[in-house]
Amino acid sequence: MKIYNKLNIKFLLVLVIAFLSSCSKEFLDEPENTAGISEPIVFSDRDIVQAFISGIYARYKGQWDDDLTDDSIEGGNQSEPDTGGLYAMYFARSLKGNDLIQSPSFFRFDYAHDNRAPTFRRTSFTWTFNYEIINYANVLIKGLKESTDLDDATKREFTAVAKSIRAFHYFQLALEFAPNYNNDRSVTRIPIYTEPATAESVGNGPSPLSDVYDLILSDLKEAIPDLPEERLGKSYINKSVANGFLARVLLVTQDDWSLASSAARAAYGGTAESAVISTNWGDGFSDLTDQDWLWGHFQDGSNESNFFWMAPHVFMDHLSLSFQATYANTNFRDEFSTTDVRRLFSDIYNSSTPYREFITTKFAFTFASDVPLMRKSEMVLIDAEAQYNLNNEPEARDLLFALQKERDPNAVLSTNSGSDLMNEILLERRKELYGELGVEWFDAKRLRMPINRDDVHRVVINVPIDSELFYLSIPQSEIDANPNMDESLNQ
């Protein structure tokens, strides 16, 4: 394990000072790295612990450079938009399928499935980002446990937050650096850490993938009962969001569809017809106050903005000053009926280049565009898939129709069954969630499907079932720094 994880705790403690002195609507003003406060002080007061957690969430919107140090740290280099925070990881996944097309801009190597080698920035960033946040969560868990100043209720609540954060990021590592869970649960690629790193820490060896998922599931199941629904804003994890995490994980393990359904229902509220209502379609998909949004990145256009970094908006919007780099596959566009509010595709360039025929106006870019990370509509579709796998096809069709009729007034209740119904649910996931979290890649990996691109694409590539292209190599920097990791992991 790299020592920078310990050093960056000092940086995060600076965020606490900024939070306490000048708190903004969702996070905090950008801090100056000039001083810090000790960890014992952080865990002496509820407000300071909350500030520490706010600092963790602020790192989700970080801007990371080639050396994977934050720009505010002395010696940091220029960031690149494709190695930002959580949003960059999600958008890299979004471009790996057939539905979206990337021009020769940032994320072009992700789009080409050519960004997984041990020395590449995508690999190093994804590993470093997730393990750094995991270390913050471990610091939080340990500090809360050892605090003599905080009451038990505060400890339980914030420990639940920390375990939710830790579970979420181990899930990202499992998705990004390991094969499909159900192919070989004994594969060893991901080290587990449940204690904070120190300057003397020696990296752990990789654990079986089954152990990684056991930790993810136990963290979430322990956390959810102690999490409140109340929160400072939608950038924060609460009970509904943690239930959403659990529902997503169970889509991968595919061994408890009843719990997947109940977790999804706890996340979306249990009434699908009201959960899926959204005013964001046709309005830029940039407002996290929309009742459909469970979790998102807040931006205010000034002190809380990633400016020209925040994907997907800055890459997919062609009608404002932005990268104007992402196009929509013509064949994907044709999957939407003409009365579907999500059919937001335009031929603005009148180009003879096939991949440049259609752009999407789903996302409108400004410095104040909020970014969706989880929505109730996704949870309704998870519930539909769970009901299908529980052999309750009528309920699956009803849940699917609750979303379809809200998006398209001319939608009719599906008569599909069997694999046709499952394929309809998967298509609806793509239509609803494209550009947001890499749904097409996620579903192909967990369900052992190929990714086959048609000839509309700028880069035509076929990714076979269970291909190594579905996961990244272990970073060379980790292999060099950790004596318990070796080159054989990448063979």
Tally the helices: what do you get?
Answer: 18
General form: globular
**CATH-derived topology:** Serine Threonine Protein Phosphatase 5, Tetratricopeptide repeat
**Which CATH-level-2 architecture?**
Alpha Horseshoe
**Count of domains:** 1
End-to-end C-alpha gap: 21 Å
Strand count, sense and barrel status of the largest sheet are: 2 strands, antiparallel
> Topology as H/E string?
HHHEEHEHHHEEHHHHEHEHEEEHHHHEEH
Number of strands: 12
So what's the CATH class?
Mainly Alpha
Subcellular location: Cell outer membrane
Keywords: Cell outer membrane, Membrane, Signal
InterPro entries: SusD-like_N (IPR033985), SusD_RagB_dom (IPR012944), TPR-like_helical_dom_sf (IPR011990)
Organism: Flavivirga amylovorans
Could you walk me through the main structural features you see in this protein, from its secondary elements to its overall organization?
- The chain has helices at 4-21, 39-42, 46-59, 86-94, 108-111, 121-146, 152-177, 209-223, 239-253, 257-268, 272-275, 313-316, 330-333, 376-389, 393-407, 418-433, 439-446, 476-481, and strands at 63-65, 79-84, 100-102, 188-191, 206-208, 293-297, 326-328, 345-346, 359-360, 371-375, 451-452, 462-463.
- It has 491 residues and is mostly helical.
- A two-stranded antiparallel ribbon has the order 1-2. A two-stranded antiparallel sheet has the order 3-7. It has a two-stranded antiparallel ribbon with strand order 4-5.
- The radius of gyration is 22 Å and the shape is globular.
- The protein has one domain: Serine Threonine Protein Phosphatase 5, Tetratricopeptide repeat (Alpha Horseshoe).
- The chain starts with a helix and ends in a 10-residue tail after the last helix.
